[in-house]
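Lecture 7, part B: from sequences to assemblies.

Below are the input chains for today's worked example.
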Amino acid sequence: MDNHKMTWEAYRDIAPSGIVDLGHRISERLKGKTLLHVNSTRWGGGVAEMLHRLVPLFQDLGVDTQWDVIEGSPEFYQVTKAFHNALQGQAQVITSEMYDAYLKINKKNGRKMDLNADMVIIHDPQPAPLIYKKKKQSKWLWRCHIDASRPQRNVWNFLKSYVSKYDGAILSLPGFARKLNIPQYLVYPSIDPLSDKNKELTEDEVRGVLRKYNIPEDKPMILQVSRFDRFKDPVGVIESYKMVKKYNDCCLVLAGGGAADDPEGAQVLIDVENAAEKDKDIFILDLPPDANIEINALQRAATVVIQKSLKEGFGLTVAEAMWKGKPVIGGFVGGITVQIVYGQTGFTVNSVEGCAYRIRYLLNNPEFSKQMGQNAKEFTRHNFLITRHIIDYLSLMIANLNL
Amino acid sequence: MKEFTFTNCVEIKELTGKKADDEVMLMDLIEEASIDSIYYHMHSCFLRHFYIVGPYPNDFANWVVMQVRDRILAEKLSAITPAKNKNLEDIRNELVEVIDAHLSSIKANPSVISGQPFYLMKSRIIEIPTQIEVKNLAEFRDALAVVDASAIYNHVFEARFRVRKGRSDFAIWFEEVLDRKSLADKVEQVDSYMYSLEGLRAKILSLCDDELQLSGGKNG
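Predicted structure of the full complex, as structure tokens:
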């Protein structure tokens, strides 16, 4: 976690005109109100990373905001991992003992946590049963970060009995909506333009990373940043690259991670290396999780960025590349279809051939490509930056607290 | 003289959990949807696309062309533009009639094959006053150039349709307070559905500049 001092004013020259003042105006209405976020871990994972960035900004805006985490045993986290997988549609066996362990840990946390706030936002399924501590005058929202649109039914029914007691749920994509008797709000995830992964870099810093990995600077770079996961279709990206290479000299960089601690990831990496057939212009980088500056530099050096996913929630790497003014070619799935306005901020594709054709099109039309990248950056500025994320949360507070 | 106060807005998007996978389902959804949903899908793409005009100016047409890939129906739906003499119920009826007529003529029900369903949503707008108050046209012009684009959405689309004033707040103020009817008429004649919010800002700014030039810099 990079630790620049986070202030709302720091975004004045980055966020859309007027939005910083808008944040001040909205937070004035929330004066004296308290906000509490609760999740299951302080470190590691996307939710904790996001809260580390959001909470200081709420506080800087004058909204009295706290963040607390529940404490669990290894058994509890095994159970919640199984829940997580079941909610995302993978078949899991959850025994009554596992349900009991899950509730027991939540009860224990509920007894010792101070959950008094005007608004409480509970993140993900792990602490969902804490709703039993809700006081009449406070408002509680359940923030679901995962794609629970096709969950294992018995697990969902169990969780639903708690979720239905909330004042509302917050989901990341329209397709994640469930049949619930409470309002379901849509709040897209966001990227932080001041984080290491997205902040401006000098040309020397970008070059330094290219040299570190021996990536040529004299030919266009096609880039995909993603874990080595079949759903990200890295082999499909190589096939597209090979089709492009017959017409345009270019190099391909596949930058990801996940191979070291995930057996399936390790197998995908082997498949990717086999598909690359030792092509000297294909660079496969298995990066550590904290390689934020490297990812940033690669995205800035790229000519075209690919996210050829076959299944995707909200593609943060798509937003990151768009923010760097790059045209993105994405698989026609999940959140990518929301992020890419076809032909304006990028292209969505359905096949290896479609991906190859659009890469060729962008390589051979640099002016069009540049304009598309600029559109992508502006679209991201308005829709997928942390400033919009904060405004969305503040608005939900105003709406739910009837201010 | 009554000042004009710019008011931003924020939109809270709500999912209804209802969706359509084909054109018949879309027609049924539109028939049963709350009026807030009709408004959301006909207008709020402007709030999502401050800079960019999508293929068509409403979500129904965009879904049909992008996901169902039925260009004929998409073109017909894109032609349904809210106008002064239509309320949101009229728009709902027109949408249903157009889809119904199209389905009758092609005798098939085009559906999504590899795309995304249409997710029915609705929204709630919260007004946030900016504390920017202007007394004359020159001040108005300068403020319009810098306010958050959501203020333009609020004073143009929200004022006309959800608040049912029938005209934009800008036109009302130009005519009733500044006594500049001709400028008010010109602003009302701008086809707002053909611009992004930033494009609309530029267009109204240019009309204000012309008016200020005509009046030889005379304010008020």
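Note for the exam: Residues 13-121 of chain B form one domain. Keep this in mind when comparing with the next example.
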